[in-house]
């Protein structure tokens, strides 16, 4: 799958559930992500699979938060570190959590910022 940038990250979904008084968290799964030239983030099972999820960053991403800014960060997978995590804040109280293997890769989250000029950072 061709894109502006691509690679493997751990991904999880998180949804704020006011009626339950907290968050509903999905398990961390390693996914293949592709950032297109048009500014969409494709979340795929592997490099050959069609996307399971598509996030149009310019229209559907309200902001990007780094791990240290996420107060209610769910338990990370073994070896996961807060400074390697960041979240895409989406509409309707939804979040897409992304976790890299090391802080240097997380710093590359700047490629997300590069494709989201309308996002409030």
TrEMBL record:
<dbReference type="GO" id="GO:0016020">
    <property type="term" value="C:membrane"/>
</dbReference>
<feature type="domain" description="PH">
    <location>
        <begin position="2"/>
        <end position="120"/>
    </location>
</feature>
<protein>
    <recommendedName>
        <fullName>PH domain-containing protein</fullName>
    </recommendedName>
</protein>
<dbReference type="InterPro" id="IPR011993">
    <property type="entry name" value="PH-like_dom_sf"/>
</dbReference>
<dbReference type="InterPro" id="IPR001849">
    <property type="entry name" value="PH_domain"/>
</dbReference>
<keyword id="KW-0472">Membrane</keyword>
<dbReference type="Pfam" id="PF00169">
    <property type="entry name" value="PH"/>
</dbReference>
<dbReference type="InterPro" id="IPR039680">
    <property type="entry name" value="PLEKHB1/2"/>
</dbReference>
<dbReference type="GO" id="GO:0045595">
    <property type="term" value="P:regulation of cell differentiation"/>
</dbReference>
């Amino acid at each position: 799958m061709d894109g502006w940038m691509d690679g493997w990250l751990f991904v999880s979904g998180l949804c704020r559930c006011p009626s339950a008084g907290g968050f509903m968290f999905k398990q961390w799964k390693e996914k293949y992500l592709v950032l297109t030239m048009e500014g969409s983030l494709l979340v795929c099972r592997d490099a050959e699979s069609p996307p399971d999820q598509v996030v149009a960053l310019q229209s559907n991403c309200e902001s990007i938060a780094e791990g240290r800014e996420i107060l209610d960060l769910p338990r990370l997978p073994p070896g996961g570190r807060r400074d390697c995590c960041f979240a895409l804040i989406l509409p309707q109280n939804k979040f897409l959590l992304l976790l890299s293997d090391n802080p240097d890769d997380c710093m590359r989250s700047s490629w997300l910022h590069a494709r989201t000029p309308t996002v409030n950072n």
